[in-house]
Specification:
Strand content: 15-25%
Number of domains: 1
Structural class: alpha+beta
CATH architecture: 3-Layer(aba) Sandwich
Number of helices: 9
CATH topology: Aminopeptidase
Largest sheet: 8 strands, mixed
Shape: globular
Radius of gyration: 18 Å
């Protein structure tokens, strides 16, 4: 995730942002096959690798929970190998807080300051939670680490070029861009996320200015609730990421239009708040 800081240009003048679209697709997961791919990736990351969830609960090797049926999912796929590299979900709610909660309200009660909802004038039919961001370990790279190794393969592992490897740090960024597109398309423009303290700092470098909404809690490590409005995210987005956002938004929107059924309980769709969202520099639905 530290490599979120790097948006470089190669000697041929190709930015990593442009190259990312050459090597990866970011899709709205509509079919059950796509959703199973999301759950399988989450199993590898959250059960096998991080041990956040007990693997024995998922004998089919697909991690899922009670919030998935009322969530919208996005899937990032490496084009040439077909490997599912990343995923993220947007969880909505429309009912009473006592009966229709978001994941952070269930697992981290009290994580948001009591007066935060009132201070931000939030209405439950417009709030959501960005969660379950995951990146396959084959596409992650810690500072100073040598894996994934470009041009090498072991035990059937895919071979990636140097050019492909340079785009890998953008996978997590693309996940947040996809989640932001979903908030804009659906009108769920008040978004929460439970994050460790380092992640909001790194996301700020891409233009995602999350505001802390409460104190630290212990849930799979120390983390806190953060809040962002869609308008803040898009207006502050780094200029070099705007084209990627527009491409991701258009691709997701096309699939969303033909989706059969609406998973969010209140039935709000692209009408959202009557089309009153106004952002600067990026095309949006009115």
């Amino acid at each position: 995730m530290a490599a979120l800081r790097v948006i470089a240009t190669d000697p041929q003048g190709n930015s990593t942002v442009n190259l990312f679209q050459k090597y990866f697709d970011v899709d709205f997961a509509v079919s059950q096959e796509q959703k199973n791919a999301v759950f399988g990736l989450r199993y590898r990351v959250y059960c096998e690798e991080r041990k956040h969830e007990p693997a024995h609960r998922f004998p089919n090797r697909m991690e899922h929970d009670e919030f998935d049926d009322k969530s919208l999912h996005c899937l990032i796929t490496h084009k040439s190998s077909g490997i599912h590299a990343g995923c993220v979900r947007l969880v909505g709610t429309g009912g009473r807080r006592e009966t229709d909660v978001l994941p952070f309200e269930k697992h981290c009660p009290g994580s948001v300051a009591p007066d935060f909802f009132r201070a931000q004038n939030l209405q439950r039919e417009f709030i959501c939670e960005i969660s379950r961001l995951a990146v396959d370990r084959r596409f992650r790279r810690r500072p100073g680490a040598q894996e994934p190794l470009a041009g090498k393969a072991a035990q059937g592992a895919p071979v990636f070029s140097d050019e492909e490897v340079r785009t890998f740090p953008l996978i997590a960024t693309a996940g947040f861009l996809a989640a932001t597109a979903l908030t804009e398309i659906t009108g769920r423009t008040d978004a929460f996320a439970m994050m460790e303290s380092y992640l909001p700092r790194l996301l700020r470098r891409a233009g995602f200015i999350f505001h802390r909404a409460g104190e630290n809690v212990e849930y799979h490590g120390t983390r806190a609730a953060y809040f962002i409005k869609t308008e803040w995210a898009i207006n502050k987005l780094r200029p070099e990421l705007r084209g990627l956002y527009k491409a991701i938004h258009a691709r997701i929107d096309q699939s969303y239009r033909v989706m059969d059924g609406w998973p969010f309980s209140n039935g709000y769709g692209t009408a959202g708040r009557g089309g009153h969202l106004r952002v600067v520099g990026v095309g949006h639905r009115r």
